[in-house]
Amino acid sequence: MAVELQSKSAFETAQKRFDSAADVVGLADDTRRVLREPKRELTVHFPVRHDDGSVHVYTGYRVQHNISRGPAKGGLRYSRGLTLDTVKALAMLMTWKCAVVGIPYGGAKGGVAVDPNALSTAELEHLTRRYATEIAVLIGPEKDIPAPDLGTTPQVMAWIMDTISMHSGHSVTASVTGKPVDVGGSEGRLEASGRGITYLTLEALKYLHVEDETPTVAVQGFGHVGASTVRLLHEAGLRIVAVGDSRGAVYNPKGLDLQALHEHRRFRGTVAGFKKAEDVSRAELLELPVTVLVPAAVEQQIHEHNASRIQARLITEAANAAVTPEADALLNEKGIFVLPDILANSGGVVVSYFEWVQDLQAFFWEEEEINTKLHHVITRAFYEVLHTSVNKRVDLRTAAYALAVQRVANASVVRGIYP
Ligand code: NAD
């Protein structure tokens, strides 16, 4: 099945979703043709000397999909099988994500085809600095601002910021976001994606009048996004009953002992084998009888072959493109409420925007102020998407895309075509 899923082009899927939204808003053909393609695609091949003296050549990408509403913005992914096709799809997604929450950015994405866990810290630093140098022609505070994504960390962002700064001869802190607070990062950025997911999940449960006394949650992925989502949903009073990662998943209907689970993961490197819960397969985790399912790992996890078995009342799509278009149709039929990725995981880019603004002003805000502003932006976007969904009689994803596509189209049309 994996082969079948991978054979589908991620970019074609992204274009398909765009086409549906363009139909809903009645987009003119000219504008549609422009927005269907990325503005710039850069592929780089570069050498890195490993600790043992051997030289390895890596392939990296940076794609800018659109910059009509502001500088390009989007994460960097370090992942072994990364392809240009995936990066193009994710860059397009970033354009819609920034537009749907109303922040003044276009969309971009980048990364390197590498397994970061297979490298030493020194090798990772060399790879990052060389990759940053290769894409330096595109990035910068006014042009394109990278951030962390799958497989990259605040440390990686600090190396990129330092590399750009060395080239410039002065500190350019606004050149990336998701940096450590010590070098111009923002309070609240580390957990911003999880916090946004939490705010939206709570808002959706309120809207759905979910009667469960304590809503239950299953989270796929226990990394940067998954782990903070687990913590924050638990703090909000929800019961976390299942958590999974790339090596397995665990389930306890009474609720997981999260502190013990963290300890276990620290020693074993995975949640699998946690004694105070039942081991379930990665696939089973998605099909558990829970109120909320949060896929927070990789793309194409809920597809036409398992969508009909999903029991959750609400899916908060934390990972980009975790639900395929075919699965969307099946989930809609079942009446499952899906908070789509471009809205669900936008907390990260919203606080990245706050970080960039703070860096440009060299004036930093308290975490409480950040969280309050995040709550405002994301709740406003939730209700705007909801209204669009009701007015246009479309599902939430199509509504989110329609809203975003209309905003980007407005900017593109009013700017006109150069020359
Ligand atoms: P991460 O690398 O920190 O964590 C990924 C987690 O997913 C790990 O626990 C890993 O074991 C697990 N995983 C990987 N493959 C899996 C599989 N096949 N089945 C089950 N689990 C698997 O990555 P992250 O930063 O948490 O990103 C997760 C998702 O959230 C990605 O889709 C990313 O694009 C999206 N996202 C991240 C951010 C951010 O700020 N980091 C922001 C928005 C969206």
* Proportion in helices: 40-55%
In percent terms, what proportion of residues is strand?
Answer: 15-25%
Poorly predicted runs of 5 or more residues: 1-6
Report the top-level CATH class of the largest domain: Alpha Beta
**Number of structural units classed as domains:** 2
What is the third-level CATH name, the topology of the largest domain?
A: Rossmann fold
Compute the separation of the termini in Å: 48 Å
Instruction: Round the mean pLDDT to the nearest integer and report it.
Output: 96
What structural class should be given to the helix and strand makeup? Answer: alpha/beta
- Could you give me the name of the CATH homologous superfamily of the largest domain? NAD(P)-binding Rossmann-like Domain
Largest sheet: 7 strands, mixed
> What is the alpha-carbon Rg in Å?
21 Å
Q: Which second-level CATH architecture of the largest domain applies?
A: 3-Layer(aba) Sandwich
Number of helices: 15
Any ligands, ions or cofactors bound here, and which? nicotinamide-adenine-dinucleotide
- Number of DSSP-assigned strands: 12
Rough shape?
globular
The neighbouring-strand order within the major sheet is: 9-8-7-6-10-11-12
Describe the protein's architecture and organization:
There is one protein chain. This protein folds into two domains: 37-183, Rossmann fold, CATH 3.40.50; 186-419, Rossmann fold. The chain is built from 15 helices and twelve strands. The model is unreliable at 1-6 (pLDDT under 50). It has 419 residues and is of the alpha/beta class. Helix 2 (10-25) crosses helix 15 (396-415), helix 7 (192-208) packs across helix 13 and helix 13 (347-361) packs across helix 14 (367-392). Strand 6, helix 8 (224-235) and strand 7 (239-245) form a beta-alpha-beta unit. The termini are far apart. The strands form two sheets. Strands 9-8-7-6-10-11-12 form a seven-stranded mixed β-sheet, sandwiched between helices. A five-stranded mixed β-sheet has the order 1-2-4-3-5. The protein is 46% helix and 17% strand. The chain is globular. It binds nicotinamide-adenine-dinucleotide. Nicotinamide-adenine-dinucleotide binds next to helix 8 and strand 7.
